[in-house]
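Fresh eyes needed here. Have a critical look at this protein's tokenised backbone.
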Amino acid sequence: MKRNQERGAAEGYCIQVLIINGEVQNHLSHKSFYIENIGKGGFRFISDVNFELEDRVQVLLRFPDDHTQEVLGRICYSDSLDDDTKAYGFSVIDGFYSLLASGG
């Protein structure tokens, strides 16, 4: 399937996981996960924490300019990178964000 959405490198972008499937994640809310690429419909992030496909995840998205936005999404795919690390696809359900957060 071809994506018509713009995607870009995500240097300086990261997330903090707040809620998974309705359960507050105090132990994860202080940990930052690196975002590999990002687009309007979602992003790909790297994690040493396991997520399940279709998990509903509320995250705090941090932009390079320190702007933050809460976003609700679902885990839509996973790729094993090594024994301890996976890349996950995050598809936005609610919480539109702009890639140019500081510029409007």
Remarks:
- The mean pLDDT is 86.
- The chain has one domain: 8-95.
- The longest strand covers residues 68-80.
